[in-house]
UniProtKB/TrEMBL annotation:
Pfam families hit by this protein: Sec8_N
Annotated spans, Disordered: 1-27
Transmembrane segments: none
Protein name according to UniProt: Exocyst complex component Sec8
Entry similarity comment: Belongs to the SEC8 family.
Protein transport found in the keyword field: yes
Keywords tagged on the record: Exocytosis, Protein transport, Transport
Domain Exocyst complex component Sec8 N-terminal: 65-150
Domain of life: Eukaryota
Organism annotation: Caenorhabditis tropicalis
Amino acid sequence: MNDGGTPVAAVRRQRPAPSERSSANSNETGLLINVIRSLTTSVSEDQREVEKSRLEKGYKESGVLIDRLVKNHQQDVEKCLVSFRDVSAKISNCRERIHNVRNALHTVKSLLELRRDDLKKLWHENAQQKSVCEIMAKLEELRDAPSKIEILISKEQFQQAADTVTESKALINGRLSRVEGLSHLSAEIERFTKILIDRINDTLVNMLVVEPFEKHLFHIIRTIPESRINQNRYCLLLYNKARSGSGTESSYNGSVSKSRIVSCVEALSTLFKTVEERSWDVDRLMMLGKNMIDKMITNTVLVMKIGANIDESNEGDTTHLKQLMQLLSAQFDSASQKHAEFGFLVEKQLGRNDVVNSFWRSAQSAIEVVVSEHLDINPLLEKQSVMGATSRKQLFKFENTACAAPNTNSSSHRAKAVICKPSAYNIKVIFPILSRIMETTEKNINDSPCELRRFMHSFVMRVFVERVKGEFASRIEGALRGGEAVRISSNKKILPSCEKVLTLCKDIHDLITSIELYADRFAALWILVLTDYFKNMTEVYEKMTPKMSEPASDTIASRCQKISAAWTADDDISRLLMSLPNWNAASMSPSTPAVESEMDVGERNKRESEILIGNLGTQAQNSLAESNLITDMNDIKMFASLHESLRWFSQEIRELVHSLPANVKMMLDTCMVQVQLKDGQMIDNNSVPSAIEDCVRRLESIADSCLLLLHIEIRVHCFFHLAPLAKYRNTSSHSEADPEVVALGKDLHNFHDNLKDVLSPPKLSYVFDGLGHLCASLFIHYSQFMPRLTEAGKKRVCRNVWGVQQRLSRITNRRESDLDRARAFFDLLQDNTPDGILAIIPEKRSQFTAAELNYLLALSVRSDKTLSNQPGALEKRQTILNSILSQRNRH
């Protein structure tokens, strides 16, 4: 330390290295330990004294050494002490300050502990206050929830409303479950929840059913006068929608409608958490849709009836029914598209994939009701009958009868949505539309046959086919009953029975084309009608033309053994006559007349006259009586009407068959039938068109027989009236023709008067053409049976020829030049002797045949007073005639 009291740093000396100090210390320590061990372990007092002395010696030596060292290092020690005191003081101050800090820390700690408890208490209080505030806010929100839900429902914000409902229920059943006094609020929310669900379902039903149905009604509403619209509330509603634009088709389509459906489905998904709840609501929605479909069908019928002005005094017809079914088909297609969109969302959100199937089941059920009511068929009773639920089979409803028992399950207890008078035949106009609906249904539900098709097959077609069969049987029986089949209309050439049967066939044709799926059944009915008509026409023809082999009774004596009927029935004669060109000309239609030259006409008239004279000339001379003729002109007219009717009927039937659709023809070609005719003949394994054509050909055979009979009959009359002219009679000088000629002319006029309004011109020509040639040939042919002719007799014959020619010309409006040949034949008798006739034979050879020249020569010889009594005179001159003819033939 210096004079100023300022401490001076001690001189630092070199200190031994730590290793050296440690080794020295260890040695010293080891020595000390050995000394202490010797003192403690030694048992000898002397030994301990020795050790003690050693220690004391060592202590003294150490003290001396220390003193010496301290003396040597006095200054350094002082400096060390001063430094030590300073450091000690500073350490003491530090320790004091540390002690103070520690005390302060203890005080702070105690204070902090007190503040922590206060803060914890305050935090708990704050948390409680916050929870209370939240609960109050939730209660306030819960209190406003019903009004908020109501507002959202009114705005159709169903998703937000569903979220509000879900949150409210979660609060009531969760955090606020122990809060008392919320039962009324919970009931309100439940009430609005049901309202929300009902509103969502109603909106969905409106979008899925009402809107698709209504959008097809606006074009009808726009055509209805406003005065009639105001008379009906629903029509007025549609009219207002149309005016406001909310009912336009564009408002029912597009993304807006789809977004509404999505909102509704998501809202339902929010409201119903479990699969069972969702399934239940979808089922409920489908039931609401089914009820709405029934209601919309009723509304559709109502709008159509108002649009068509149909009421109790003005009934609708099948045209309106067809329009109704077409409209319903379009409505169901639109509703199906909406249900397909809805079904996709339901499958995605709610897990149900049967929405479209459910819709079409409801649609089929609704269509069944509409069809049943318009066909007047009760489907419920039909189904019960089929399933054996009842022993009585009621096919049609009789609600208005006194004995009708009430049935609460019947649709008769509600107003029927019919647009026209119910009838089983309404199926004709609606079946094509129903077929398209059935195909659409089966395509959508992927199931065939669908319920509607089974209904149509089992409960409609079975009843309808049987009913049609029964009604057709009654109608054809009425058409052919008694004299109806042969009654001739006063103003038509077609038999009324034929028109009625054709009407039946047209009705069947309509059924075949309308209900193509059952074409085979109705075609079989067609064949049945044609077969019955053929049997009836055969009976009619046979009654009018009894067979030659049948005995003649008193009542039908006048109709027995008719020559024309016998010839017509003779296959050889009829086939021969029908092979002539004039028959083909008569068979052609008036628009395509046959063209024949004069030579062709002459040849076929000659051929026909030869056939008739060859078969009837001898018979007419010997045994032809009036009973062999048909003298009743009503019968003649009936044959003509029968011919024209059956020909017309056959042509109409062929046109009906030809007009069938190609697919129907293909179906009928594969359908084989068996037909039994009146004579027991069986036509088996024949296709339907072939069987129909066979029936038509048989009817045409009867028609051809009638025309051929008329053709032959008028010629038989010529034989009957001209044959007596060959007999000898006293002649007078008057210029009148014989009574037979007058009778023949009268018969010809009666024939013409009764046939001209019935037969077509070609067929009338077929009956009368060639009569001049036949009469001329008959005059010449019967000349071989004439006795000696006087000059008056020759004039009489020429007068008769002229009388026939004159009367026939008035009918045909032709000169009938063929009779000039007969007059020329008999004129040769007046101007020439037998030898003179032989002299002019070369000139007349082309005008007369060899047989006719022989008749002429023989009559001339019989009429000559001299030669008629000479034996061999005729034979001599016939030899000369034959020689002349043979020479002529050689040249």
